[in-house]
Design brief:
This is Phage tail protein. The strands form 3 sheets. Strands 1, 2, 3, 4, 5, 6, 7, 8 and 22 form a 9-stranded antiparallel beta sheet that branches. By secondary structure, the chain is mostly beta strands. About 7% of the residues have low confidence.
Length: 295
C-alpha cells in the first residue's frame, strides 16, 4: 500500500495522523474516512470581473490578475485508545495547537507537501469509550502547498572559487554549474560557480528565498534572467535574507528593504527555471532555497 498520512507540527511538537491501522498509530490519531478537504483543490478565486455593457460576458483579464484567496484545509480525524483517558489524551494533542502557527504536512504516495497556518480544533459531541472524532481546520494565509524537501543552490563570487553548487532533495547528490551535467575539476572548473539555475517542478509559481552569508563590502548584485537585483549596502557577519514572495529584505529580523535596488526578484514559473548570477566581489556566498510549489 502506498503511504498516506499527515503530520502536524507546532512549537517543538509533531503529531502523526496515520492513514491506516497497518501503518501503526503512534500518537493515537488517524485520518477518518472523510479524509482531508481542501488539500488538492485550488482555494477560492480572488478575481474582480467587469461586465460588458454590450454583448455577453465580462471583459478579458490578464493572467497576472488571476489570484487566489487563503487556503482552508479540514482534516477529519479519529482518536483511539485502550481507555477513555488514552483517547482524550490523543485528542488533546490537537487542541494544544491552538494559538500557534502550525505546519501541516501530507504524504500521499509520491507527493510530500505542506502548508502553514493557524488551526481550529473541533471535537464531535458523540461519546464513545475508546474512540473520538472531530475536525482540524487549518487556515493558510499563504495558499500554496510547498514541497517538504527543498532544493538549494549556492553561488560564490568570481573572485572566490569557481558553477553554483545545487543540492537536490534530501541532499542526494550535487548538481554543478548551470546545467548540472556532471563534475568538473582543475582549470576547466573556473568560471561557473557564480551562476545557478533555479528549478520549480511544481504546478504554480515558486518564490525562492535567498540568504547572503559572509562579507560583501560593496553590497550585492545579482543578475536574474538578465535583470538586476541589488542590495546597496555593506553585508557582513549578519546574514541577509531576501524573500522573493514578499519582495522584502531582512537582516537579523530587521527590515532592510530600503537598500534593495532593481527589484527583479526571482519568480520561477511552474515546470520552469530562472538563472541567477552573482556579480559581486566578496568573501561570502548566496544560498538560493527553492521548494516546488502547487496551488
Amino acid at each position: 500500500m502506498l503511504p498516506y498520512y499527515a503530520i502536524l507540527y507546532y512549537g517543538q511538537t509533531q503529531i502523526r495522523l496515520s492513514g491506516s491501522v497497518e501503518q501503526g498509530i503512534p500518537d493515537g490519531l488517524g485520518i477518518a474516512k472523510a479524509g482531508i478537504e481542501g488539500w488538492l483543490s485550488a482555494p477560492d478565486l480572488k478575481v474582480d470581473l467587469t461586465q460588458r455593457a454590450n454583448g455577453d460576458g465580462a471583459h478579458d483579464i490578464a493572467s497576472s490578475d488571476i489570484q487566489y484567496a487563503e487556503r482552508t484545509v479540514t482534516v477529519h480525524w479519529i482518536a483511539m485508545g485502550d481507555s477513555r483517558d488514552e483517547t482524550l489524551a490523543a485528542a488533546m494533542k490537537l487542541s494544544a495547537a491552538a494559538h500557534q502557527t502550525v505546519r501541516l504536512r501530507v504524504v500521499d504516495s509520491l507527493s510530500d507537501t505542506y502548508v502553514t497556518g493557524y488551526v481550529r480544533p473541533e471535537i464531535d459531541a458523540a461519546w464513545h469509550d475508546g474512540i473520538m472524532t472531530g475536525t482540524l481546520t487549518i487556515v493558510c494565509y499563504r495558499p500554496e502547498r510547498l514541497s517538504w524537501q527543498n532544493r538549494e543552490t549556492q553561488l560564490y563570487p568570481v573572485s572566490s572559487v569557481s558553477g553554483g553548487l545545487s543540492y537536490g532533495p534530501a541532499g542526494k547528490g550535487l548538481d554543478y554549474g548551470l546545467n548540472g551535467l556532471g563534475l568538473s575539476y582543475g582549470v576547466t572548473a573556473g568560471d561557473q560557480r557564480n551562476i545557478g539555475m533555479l528549478r520549480n517542478e511544481g504546478t504554480s509559481r515558486a518564490y525562492p528565498v535567498l540568504t547572503v552569508n559572509g562579507e560583501f563590502p560593496d553590497g550585492l548584485m545579482l543578475i536574474v534572467d538578465g535583470q538586476q537585483l541589488g542590495y546597496d549596502s555593506h553585508i557582513n557577519a549578519t546574514p541577509l535574507v531576501i524573500d522573493s514572495r514578499s519582495g522584502g529584505a531582512y537582516m537579523g529580523g530587521v527590515d532592510v528593504g530600503r537598500w534593495i535596488t532593481g527589484g527583479n526578484f526571482p519568480i520561477i514559473p511552474p515546470k520552469g527555471s530562472v538563472s541567477v548570477m552573482l556579480a559581486s566581489s566578496g568573501s561570502g556566498w548566496v544560498t538560493c532555497d527553492v521548494r516546488d510549489t502547487y496551488m
